[in-house]
Amino acid sequence: MSGPTPRELLVVEGARQIGDGDLVIVGTGLPLLAATLAQRTHAPGAKLVIESGVMFPRVVPTPVSVVDPRLMHGASRHGSLFEALGGLVQRGLVRTGFLGGAQVDEYANINSTWVPRESGERVRLPGSGGANDIASHCRQVVVLTDHERRRFPARCDYVTSPGFLSGPGARAAAGLPPLAVKVVTDLCVMEAEDSALTVTALMPGATERAVLDNTGFTPLFSPDLTTVVPPAPEDLRLLREELDPACVYFPERKLR
User: Fold this and answer.
1) Strand (E) positions, 38-78?
2) 165: which of 152, 155, 193, 209 lies 20 to 30 Å off by Cα?
3) How confident is the model at residue 255 (pLDDT cuts 50, 70, 90)?
4) Number of Cβ atoms within 10 Å of the Cβ of 91
5) What angle is formed at CA 211 by the lines to CA 182 and CA 217, rounded to 5 degrees?
6) CA–CA separation, 158 vs 161, rounded Å?
7) Beta bridge partners of 182
8) Nearest-CA neighbor of 158 among 195, 130, 132, 139?
9) pLDDT per residue as tens digits for the range 134-160
10) Catalytic residue ranges
11) In this structure, are residues 127 and 113 in contact, taking their beta carbons and an 8 Å threshold?
């Protein structure tokens, strides 16, 4: 079996953030693959909640939206957005939320609302959905994203989902509960708890220089910097043969 692609590394490391028995809210795309991989390997008791209101499904590959019937297979309940966000997330019952975004800044704030063009015009993005609820009320947020300089500015142009706002203490001052953030990219893992993001691990083959060159702020590096453990062959087999055999989320595999 060929070695992992950068995005496969990202998904496998994302799956490792889910513990057995965790209640996790996810959307489609790479977060869903990560959560489903965790269920199939080390966390069979993980319970998935889909923002649209699907509760505890056993996902059939490979859904392409939050209303795809394959996402609803074996669910305990086909509920509503109100039940998922109001009944679970806002009550603090969901441990881990997976998010994406166009920008993630130094203090782990996320922007998925708009970004400026060089002309000064604004490019409208999908917006919050339940992302603000997730960042405000989950105990842990995991962000899966490609590592590009434009995605990691020093400050987001707009804060859709709060991390630590302007810095240490600002989240508590805004009345928000404590949060742990882990940003997993194709270059590294960055973590924060009421602080600036710190690089705690590099992806196999990545360097500190590559992280610095592709980040719009100067991240801290942990003195105990490690390297992410490569995926086990069985993890790659599951991703490639069972969870995404048509390369819906890994189109780069078709080029190999």
Assistant:
1) 47-50, 54-55, 77-78
2) 209
3) low
4) 10
5) 80
6) 9
7) 142, 191
8) 132
9) 999 999 999 999 999 999 999 999 999
10) 51
11) yes
Q: Shortest CA distance to 140 belongs to which of 247, 16, 24, 55?
A: 24
CA geometry: angle at 102 spanning 110 and 108, to 5°? 25
Measured distance CA(68)–CA(59) in Å, rounded = 10
Asked whether 103 and 157 are in contact (CB, 8 A), the reply is: yes
Q: How confident is the model at residue 49 (pLDDT cuts 50, 70, 90)?
A: very high
Instruction: Pick left, alpha or beta for residue 214 (phi over 0 → left; psi -120 to 50 → alpha; otherwise beta).
Output: alpha
**Residue whose token pair is 């998925």:** 112
pLDDT digits (tens, 9 = 90+) for 100-112: 889 999 999 999 9
Do the strands 110-111 and 103-104 form a parallel or antiparallel pair, or are they unpaired? antiparallel
State the CB neighbour count (10 A cutoff) for residue 235: 21
Residue with tokens 């060159």: 213
**Tokens 């893992």 sit at which residue?**
189
- 50: which residues sit within 8 A by CB, 6+ positions away? 25, 26, 27, 57, 66, 71, 84
- Interatomic CA distance for residues 222 and 218, integer angstroms: 13
Based on DSSP, count helices (H) and strands (E) in the chain, helices before strands: 7, 14
- Please report, as a single letter, which amino acid is at residue 111: N
> Which stretches does DSSP call E strand in 145-184?
180-184
Q: What is the mean pLDDT of residues 151-172?
A: 97
pLDDT per residue as tens digits for the range 208-236:
999 999 999 999 999 999 999 999 999 99
Q: How many residues does the chain have?
A: 256
Could you tell me which residues come within 8 angstroms of residue 255 by beta carbon, excluding any fewer than 6 positions away?
Answer: none
